[in-house]
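Quick entry, no commentary yet.
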Amino acid sequence: MTMLSAQETPTTGNVVLIYILFLLAGLLAGGAWTVFRNHSKFLGVALGGCAVMAAAAGVMWAIDFYN
């Protein structure tokens, strides 16, 4: 009989965090596009970079969660 530690058991909080990261990535991408179109190139690129990082974190967390 094997026992699972607290870190190995999937929780609802992990799934919610994955959804929140993808939601944040979408909001940041939309904000980046809007700011970029309003001629603020630096802020648009910065928000776009944050969107990419949030999406990448969501993907990596999801891969770790479902493995």
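second:
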Amino acid sequence: MTRENITNQEFESRASNFVLRKKLWFTVLLFLIALTVEVLYFRSYGTGYFISPDGLHYSNIAENFLHGNGLVNTANFVQGDDGVIREVAQTREYVVGPVYPMLLAIIYGIFGMMNFKMVILVLHSVLGAASAVFAYKTGELLFSKGYAWIPYCLTLGYPLFAFWGMYVLTEATYVFTITLFLYLLARYAKEVDRPKLKTLLLLGAAMGVSNLVRPLLLLYFPVLGIWIWWAKGWNLKMALRDFAVIVVMTVVVMSPWWIRNGIKYHQFIAVSNYGSYEFYLGNNPLTITDQYFYFAQPSYDPQVKARIEKLPIPEQEKEYKQLAVSYIVQHPILFLQRTFAKEKDLFWQPVPTLGGAYKIKGVLLDKWYLLLGLVGAFLSLFTLKKYSFLLLFIVYYSFIVSMITVVDGARYRLPVMPGMILLGSLVLVIAIKGIGKLTGANRRTGRRL
């Protein structure tokens, strides 16, 4: 090798390292800007945090973990009509995904037990800022670097992300994992002809971690498999190879939790040991579907509930699941009608501002985010190869949540919003490009005149 070749290689290596360092510092700057915005938003509220029975439930598990008792639940909490949360006698142990309780345990280990304020200011603000950074990175892949600021700013500006980040709940963590998941899907879509093994492994790991926060991506694998097959030009062999790597990595990430649950409870628990009651609540003849976010409803037979609650917990879950499935099988058309009605109420209309139910700063922006996202969903149909993964995720997630239960609170549609924000960004990108072309055409006309 000549001295000239060696010099060229050294120059290229230094140039490559410089580019990498520049990208790293730029990413750090993006994160710090987003973190500042998150903290300022949280500090703008008069209170340091919001707490609910679910939040205390996760906190109880984190405390037990730090005390050496493992990830177990030893207390139940309820919120009375007066708004006061009280501890009640434990009637069952609720098993939940381990990711959020362990994150709480880290914060408690550093800042002290039940330091909810630092959960918000440290954990949730960091996750919110990281979500904005991944929104930027996804925007780079979909729209180019010059337009990546659009999903970054829209993510930071969405009021429901920040508001539910004030709660000691899984929302900030789950939105982060979904944002990461969509970024990795966008990477895979860009590399689909020759995907990197690293991308496949990271995508499987992201799905596994997201399921260990909330298990709603467990049913996504058939959808993902069909999409990969389509993206591969119906090449079954290549699609199966990629899909298998993703599934195996997901199993690797989730299997320690499965093994732990099998040893401790002598049964297979994929993520959590509850949910069948809500499945039954959302799928029986008494379900109400014409009221917005209506949860406290008499949508179950009290006699059936009284009978089932006498059974052991695993049998209760099995019985509720069987009743819900039986209802769906016997009334398929009514099931679809009610599911779409619940989906419309929960996912496709803005959060109500009347009655004081939501004290969210900037809540009026919600309807514009929804409108942008829906317009973007329509426009993406003309470039389906590029944006199909976003459409499939949004359709899947909104349908699955609406199918399973009747839920209250806009927090249940938060995981759809990273996809909606990216589609809404598409609208703004097209508009900005159109204005640029029109302005350029006018300038050229003016020069000719």
